[in-house]
Design goal:
The protein has 218 residues and is an alpha+beta fold. The chain has two domains: 45 residues, no CATH class; 125 residues, no CATH class. The strands form two sheets. A three-stranded antiparallel beta sheet has the order 1-2-3. It has a two-stranded antiparallel sheet with strand order 4-5. Strand 1 and strand 2 form a beta hairpin. Helix 4 packs antiparallel against helix 6. It is elongated and about 100 Å long.
Amino acid sequence: MTTKLIHRKWLLGLCLSLVLLFNTRAQESDTLVAGADTAFIEGTAIDLAPVVKVHSPHKATFYAAILPGLGQAYNKKYWKIPILYAGIGGLAYAIHFNSKYYNSYKSAYRDFIIRDPGNKSYLEFIPPNLTEEQVTGQYEDWFESALLNKKQYYRRYRDLSYLGMVGIYIIQMVDAAVDAHFYNFDISDDLSMRVEPAMMAPAPGEFAGLGVQIQLKF
């Protein structure tokens, strides 16, 4: 067998393969033409089940972790976002308020202990009925204890405000994940409970009575 004959057979085989491949693709294209809800197989229309977009709890949690409220927006629970940010705003104000007074009482307590003549920030906390000489004299222990208690009070509520902020951040992530899990949850009309009055069947020798019945449908 000559080289030219081999080349001819190889080219013929390649052409036949391409033709068969083209015909197969054309048949598949003619056999199934899919639309949004309908497919045509050999000219016959067949209804297809609608494609349901999966609502991902992982995405909802990830969005909520990036920005509070973004997970609720992904779940289309927009009404929760103002409530969430109202809580965040309230805790942010509490952090600012308690931090401000904590720092003030901290400086006052420090200055009162050191007694530096150039730093007397504790003067603004002296009660109106007392003088500086009194709080540095006969009421010294009481005033020092009062400054310390106030400092610890505002520090405690500042820390609790920070914990509340962290708690809101975690809760809104959990809320977004739970809502995403139940996003496609369907409650069928066949699952219901109904309470209604009913006539009770009388026992032998007794009169019929009026009662209440509960119907559960599954």
